[in-house]
Design goal:
Among the domains are: 112 residues, Immunoglobulins (Immunoglobulin-like); 115 residues, Immunoglobulin-like, CATH 2.60.40. 11% of the residues lie in helices and 36% in strands. The chain is built from two helices and 16 strands.
């Protein structure tokens, strides 16, 4: 019995000591704890669970809980919703549009020059020579040419051409060619000459080459059968005699083959040398002393000299006269010219 009393007393002492360590045991009022928003939410959730359990009447069926995580647990981020990239579609292949080619408007009457059948441009003729010019032409229009189509002189040097002549005695269909000829006569004086021609249809409408209507033409050079120039060159020593040299250029249409030459001192009114007739009288150099060239062809030049025993007196007026011919022995066509100069 005594032991029991001691045990109860021991218990009371322990309770008293424990009570002294409780909150508020120092005589001060215990402050009311302040709940955070998270604590409030948790408390509300707990109450909700208790109410639900009470209303269920002890039923054991589980009820859905608020999925709020306990404090201190990290929030697991939800992965972003996957949005697929759009499917890449190749652009259509570019196909260029065909180039626009304008359609040429072809006139009824049009002519194209093909070639000179005779008398190429620049052919040489002696004065008053007759010749036949022929062109090859092509009908590049849409209308057929007949005997009422004519060749007509258009401008330039007519060279005796008729005012008009038929292009053909038959027909020339589109795309066909025809040779058109006309008889002409070279002018009587040396020079270059050009005559322009066109065609004329049955309605007297004149037309020419292509859409621009240019003329086609004949072009010739008239040259004298014998023509040359003479120029003083020098006087040089040939060892015991002196050569007075001139340059001869053949501007004619025939070879020069012989000469008759003479030198006059006009100051003294005296002949210093000649006249001398020479076949093959030409030299290839202005310093030569002997003849080596047989003739001068058209367009060429050589030298011819006359010999004197003594050098002419310096300052005297000299005259070199040359009669040149197209055949040996002063035959054929001949022409005389001279050149004056002062003795060096």
């Amino acid at each position: 019995m005594k032991n029991r009393r001691i045990f109860v007393l021991f218990i009371l002492i322990i309770v008293t000591l424990y009570g002294c360590n409780l909150p508020g045991s120092d005589g001060r009022a215990t402050p009311t704890p302040t709940l955070s928003d998270g604590d409030i939410a948790k408390t509300a959730a707990a109450k909700t669970v208790a109410v639900q359990l009470t209303q269920s009447g002890g039923q054991s069926s589980p009820q859905p809980l608020d999925p709020t995580l306990p404090p201190g647990q990290p929030t697991v981020p939800m992965p972003p919703t996957y949005t697929p990239f759009p499917t890449y579609t190749l652009p259509p292949t570019f196909t260029p549009l065909p180039s626009f080619t304008p359609t040429e408007s072809i006139p009824c009457d049009r002519v194209t020059f093909i070639k000179d059948v005779t008398i190429p441009d620049g052919t040489d003729f002696i004065p008053s020579a007759t010749f036949t010019k022929t062109w090859r032409l092509k009908n590049t229009g849409t209308c057929t040419w007949n005997s009422q189509y004519s060749l007509v002189f258009f401008s330039g040097d007519s060279m005796g051409a008729p005012a008009s002549k038929p292009v053909t005695s038959g027909t020339v269909t589109p795309g066909s060619t025809v040779d058109v000829s006309v008889n002409l006569t070279a002018p009587g004086s040396p020079g270059s000459y050009k005559g322009n021609f066109k065609l004329r249809n049955a309605s007297n409408v004149v037309f020419g080459l292509g859409n621009s209507g240019n003329p086609f033409y004949v072009k010739i050079d008239v040259v004298a059968p014998l023509s040359f120039t003479i120029e003083y060159v020098n006087i040089h020593d040939c060892g015991g005699w002196y050569a007075v040299m001139v340059k001869i250029t053949n501007n004619g249409s025939k070879n020069i083959e012989s000469a008759n030459i003479k030198l006059i001192d006009q100051t003294l009114s005296a002949t210093l040398s000649g006249p001398i007739t020479i076949n093959k009288p030409f030299m290839d150099s202005p310093s030569s002393c002997t003849t080596t060239i047989t003739d001068i062809e058209p367009g060429d030049y050589y030298y011819i000299g006359i010999g004197v025993l003594a050098a002419p007196t310096t300052g005297h007026k000299l005259k070199f006269i040359a009669l040149l011919c197209t055949q040996d022995g002063l035959g054929g066509d001949c022409l005389e010219k001279f050149v004056k100069f002062d003795a060096p």
